[in-house]
Write a structure and sequence with these properties.
The chain contains 11 helices and no strands. With about 240 residues, it is mainly alpha-helical. The protein folds into 2 domains: about 1-85, Arc Repressor Mutant, subunit A; about 100-240, Tetracycline Repressor, domain 2, CATH 1.10.357.10. Helix 1 crosses helix 2, helix 1 crosses helix 4 (about 85-95) and helix 6 (about 125-135) crosses helix 11. The protein is elongated and about 75 Å long.
Length: about 240
């Protein structure tokens, strides 16, 4: 009889332990689901805010329209961000960060994998590098970001600085790294890499950037190719002549 009683007690203990384990699992699952829901709403708010801030700037974007676009209430936004300034800062920090340059300019090996033209020490390679530069510079998002940064520069000067340090500096850094490889392969010495990269950027941006920025020019792949072809041809001639 004692053995049977012991078995019953053990069974009850195991049953109780099993129920506790199930309850703990449910609680953990509930906490995870709640955390995921909060993160999902946070992402939705930031994405909606990014669209409105880049399009209308800080003053032009309203919390009501951002909330509507995100599918949440204004109260929910303020439960995630203390005020409009904090939301704007969160959005702009992300927008002014180029993931390719999270730390510094990538190695040549990484750049070669990312950009096939990087290993070409030819006029064609310079042309393709120019196309890449203009394609990024004249993308709708980058133009909108540039407008937002300059529009709100007085209120948020730190974002102009971050834009310059990451986006602008990073793209210039790619050109410098590419030209360094070109000069080494061609045996061209005595070059000022930073100056040459700045010259090529100026040739690429001439007229087209300002016109695109102010909506005076519709940017297309053909437009980018035409400007990149002209700039790269001029730059290659200048480099070849100087290095004779």
């Amino acid at each position: 009889m004692l053995d049977e009683g012991t078995i019953v007690v053990d069974s009850e203990k195991r049953l109780y332990a099993g129920e506790v384990a199930k309850t703990s699992t449910k609680l953990a699952s509930h906490r995870t689901s709640k955390a995921e829901l909060i993160a999902e709403k946070d992402r939705a708010i930031v994405l909606a805010a990014r669209e409105h801030f880049l399009r209308y700037g800080f003053a032009g974007a309203s919390m009501d329209t951002i909330a509507k676009s995100a599918g949440v209430s204004v109260k929910t936004i303020y439960s995630h961000f203390s005020n409009k300034d904090e939301l704007f800062s969160n959005v702009m920090i992300g927008a002014c960060t180029d993931n390719l340059f999270a730390a510094d300019i990538p190695s040549n090996e990484t750049l070669e994998q990312r950009f096939p033209w990087f290993s070409k020490a030819t006029r064609q390679g310079l042309f393709e590098a120019g196309k890449e530069y203009l394609g990024h510079l004249l993308s709708e998002e980058q133009l909108a970001l540039y407008r937002a940064v300059t529009r709100d520069a007085e209120r948020f000067p730190e974002f102009g600085q971050q834009y310059q340090q990451t986006i602008a500096r990073g793209r210039t850094g790619i050109l410098i790294a590419y030209l360094r490889c070109v000069f080494r392969k061609k045996g061209w010495t005595g070059r000022d890499l930073a100056q040459d990269a700045a010259s090529y950027e100026a040739l690429l941006r001439a007229q087209i950037f300002e016109e695109a920025l102010h909506g005076l020019l519709t940017v297309s792949s053909n437009t980018i190719e035409q400007y990149a072809a002209l700039a790269s041809s001029t730059m290659w001639i200048l480099l070849a002549d100087d290095c004779k």
